[in-house]
Amino acid sequence: MASNLLCKLKRSVSAASLRSYLAEFISTFLFVFAAVGSAISARMAMSGPGAPAPDATSSAGASAASDAASLVATAVAQAFGLFGAVLIAADVSGGHANPAVTFAFAIGGHIGVPTAVFYWASQMLASVFACLVLHYISAGQAVPTTRINVHMTGFGAAIIEAFLTFMLVYTVHVAGDLRAAAGGKRGFAATALGALAVGMVAGALVLSAGPMTGASMNPARSFGPAVVSGDYKNQAVYWAGPMIGAAVAALAHQILVGPPDAVAAAAQSSSRHGNVETVVV
Amino acid sequence: MASNLLCKLKRSVSAASLRSYLAEFISTFLFVFAAVGSAISARMAMSGPGAPAPDATSSAGASAASDAASLVATAVAQAFGLFGAVLIAADVSGGHANPAVTFAFAIGGHIGVPTAVFYWASQMLASVFACLVLHYISAGQAVPTTRINVHMTGFGAAIIEAFLTFMLVYTVHVAGDLRAAAGGKRGFAATALGALAVGMVAGALVLSAGPMTGASMNPARSFGPAVVSGDYKNQAVYWAGPMIGAAVAALAHQILVGPPDAVAAAAQSSSRHGNVETVVV
Amino acid sequence: MASNLLCKLKRSVSAASLRSYLAEFISTFLFVFAAVGSAISARMAMSGPGAPAPDATSSAGASAASDAASLVATAVAQAFGLFGAVLIAADVSGGHANPAVTFAFAIGGHIGVPTAVFYWASQMLASVFACLVLHYISAGQAVPTTRINVHMTGFGAAIIEAFLTFMLVYTVHVAGDLRAAAGGKRGFAATALGALAVGMVAGALVLSAGPMTGASMNPARSFGPAVVSGDYKNQAVYWAGPMIGAAVAALAHQILVGPPDAVAAAAQSSSRHGNVETVVV
Amino acid sequence: MASNLLCKLKRSVSAASLRSYLAEFISTFLFVFAAVGSAISARMAMSGPGAPAPDATSSAGASAASDAASLVATAVAQAFGLFGAVLIAADVSGGHANPAVTFAFAIGGHIGVPTAVFYWASQMLASVFACLVLHYISAGQAVPTTRINVHMTGFGAAIIEAFLTFMLVYTVHVAGDLRAAAGGKRGFAATALGALAVGMVAGALVLSAGPMTGASMNPARSFGPAVVSGDYKNQAVYWAGPMIGAAVAALAHQILVGPPDAVAAAAQSSSRHGNVETVVV
């Protein structure tokens, strides 16, 4: 048992695996930079280029989406950014860019638990690094955290996040599954269109629930701003909600389209998670 | 005759069919959540995060799109959301997410009438459930219904909805037909691009006529908010208009590209409506 | 000579050709409805749902894009709408939806002159019909015409329209040429992506020059609103500019990628202009 | 050594190469027209169609994105415009439209240094020409330059530009590499989706950092407005930042997905840089 775990752990630090973690780092960096950067930029645009830099402590609580145009700005940034983030890492690490997605694939047996833990670490480090870059270099702007609307309870917010993440991760599964099903061979077009669907569904959901909970759907996206701003309030909501939604999505997808048969699963693991195939349990 | 109907009815409750209904449920839930949620969120964004929650009764009449930025927000949410909704159910149920689309396919003989009725039930239940989730969990926000501009008559609104739905459902037919025509084999790329076209045409039409009638083009999208808000005004408009437009679109498509020949029809029914092929009349 | 023309004319009224004209009608209707409808809707959204209907004569001069959010609304509507318009007619008529595009294909010899004239008639009728539907049914809203900025001359506006149309029609040629070049066989994915590129380039150009000239790039798009509003001012600008730009684009494309060889040309005419292949000169 | 350089130089002026330079010119013209034109148009839209033309000297310093809706307008224009720009030149010149991209491909050995220099010249000439067209024809509007937020240092801006360009050029490499990897044969769908990803990532990054540095990521995009407005301030930032970011992206891509093997490289050079294959070093 212990040697089995050790064996898995060993595989998790191969050269191919290290490339996967680096790909997840770049991918998550791009997504979090787009999500958090667009919230900062929309705020800067509204206050004008000549306005004084907002005080890092007092305005940290300002909503990232304080009017409809800012909501569109951050939703489009997340849609386009997640499209790119999923695509650029798709053939190296699977293009998760989201601990909840990694969790769903771990539950489904597509990725080993030790590898998933390293994925999570990469994703969270990338998120913190993206927020640090945005904070220290961009004139000391406060990094906006994902926040729950004042009229909403933490429990309600977690349920919304679970519903949102369910829809996002279900889309991720359809995109991945159909790709693998197409003769076991996946072209760039299918990968790109799957990534586009994931990005655009995320954008639609940010537009739907952004002013309610921030529409995080991604623990890493909430973790970085919390670390950099030092405001860890409601982190439990942004971890529990997405994880539950992702797990239910993985289950629902298996019920609706059936479990992947051996051939498709093999094709998927060798094509989707190219460099990490040896670490799949 | 009665036994024939009973036989069809029996096929409509097979395991494959139940999966189709569940897929329509998830698909319609995603679309209605995006459409109605974005209208609520745009309103919340405009009034600011610290504003009091609007009273559920008095503001039910507020327009979902009260300025151009809110119009863009809800149109983009519907474009991206419908893209995802059509895509995630495409290989299980055909990805209708709209009773008017189901009606058009029933007229064209692509789907049996009993199955169509179950599709409708799934779609309407999903819409009501999406609106309930948005209402009870999101700080008791009023659920905005699709509304007719005060300067417009119900008859005029029904005609606009018919025109809008004609364009949407014609696009649905082109997307479906071309897919099947490509050698009887449909890849993920064609499915995704067809879904993208359907979503983006819907977005363009919401931008064109949103402030006139709400640009519903989808009885389920209007039904859920009506049930949850208790305001059934103009429901007839949102059922008659889209149904007529969808029927004319099915007819126009047959005239323009000719009736599907036997091979293409068989390929379509077996590929597009994968799990429901046994229930096609 | 006369009999040759008669022969060509005869081919132009075959059943296949009539289908092409009907396809161009639907396609242009969708695009003009999106372009003009979004301008009306953005104006309605800005003035609020309860505001009095603007007087049809006095506000006809109001700009269709009176702030940045309205500009985004109409640009996105045109991008998404043109994507759909080109796609739904692509396999029947080639999906022009624009007299300038038809002109460029006539210059390049891809379509006969008599057929081109019927295409133009369909496109202009569709534009007028779309504007009539928008005007008479939508509470008597004034139909906004494409207008030249007060600081600009008609000559300058024609040059801008020529530059804009050059870029749009060059994109149309690349999309069409690459499709045909792919083994002489064009799948739905290539058609859809070509249409997407055409739509999105149009959207980018509306964002670039909308407040300058309206960024028409399409005589039909300017003709319908002029007829319905009775304001034919600057029609010469919206015909001369796009036609010149389209002609230069056809020429530039031939220089850059070489004239289509016989095989590719045959493949293109039989696949792109499916129903009109017998009328190609 | 000298004769070697002369030989390379000679190849750089072949007919195929001249076509490449012309393709880069058109491609960069389209992108810069969209980027700069949308900034001018958003400003015109905000001030209304009847407002006096802004004085060319005093308002040159006005931010191109003075509110969230303008930020969305210019980001979407760049996303859609870059998609088109990359696509229309992809099969002739590779579709760079950006000196930093050309630099990255020169570092990677995909394009010879003399050819790269001609690419740069084409790109910069195109940018200046696009800005001249926008300036002289559009009622003498001031051409907005990319500007650094007043709270930011030039060094910080260069670092942001480097990060932004890293993400953009990494995406360019993934799009190009995966295309070539698909059996050595690249279809229109893969080219178009790669171009779409590049455009959308650019759009996301403009939304993320537009109000900080203008999110140029492209020395040509900053060079044209500087020449036309006569304001060369911070040009060093807009050259150094992107070049460093592009170089690191080329390196990171080689580390993550390995160096292209001989077969893929040959396939890439013959398919991606069709007309310039003879000038590759």
Protein described:
Four copies of one chain form a homotetramer. In chain A, helix 2 (15-47) packs across helix 8 (219-229), helix 4 (99-107) packs antiparallel against helix 5 (113-137) and helix 6 crosses helix 10. Chain A has helices at 2-11, 15-47, 68-89, 99-107, 113-137, 154-181, 188-213, 219-229, 235-257, 262-271. Chain A is globular, with a radius of gyration of 19 Å. With 281 residues, the first copy, chain A, is mainly α. The two termini of chain A are 14 Å apart. Chains in contact: A-B, A-C, A-D, B-C, B-D, C-D. Chains B and C meet through helix 3, helix 6, helix 7 and helix 9 of B and helix 2, helix 3 and helix 7 of C.
In brief:
4 copies of one chain form a homotetramer. Chain A is 70% helix and 0% strand.
Quaternary structure state of the chains depicted: homotetramer
Describe the largest sheet of chain A: none
Helicity of chain A, in percent? over 70%
Q: Unreliable segments of chain A (pLDDT under 50, ≥5 consecutive)?
A: 49-65, 179-184, 262-281
One letter per element, helices H and strands E, the order of chain A comes to: HHHHHHHHHH
Most residues in contact, chain pair and counts: A-B, 52 and 54 residues
Nearest-angstrom radius of gyration of chain A? Answer: 19 Å
Helical stretch tally of chain A: 10
Which descriptor suits the 3D outline of chain A? Answer: globular
Q: What is the percentage of strand-forming residues of chain A?
A: under 5%
Membrane topology (chains A, B, C, D): Multi-pass membrane protein
Pfam families (chains A, B, C, D): MIP
Keywords (chains A, B, C, D): Membrane, Repeat, Transmembrane, Transmembrane helix, Transport, Vacuole
Subcellular location (chains A, B, C, D): Vacuole membrane
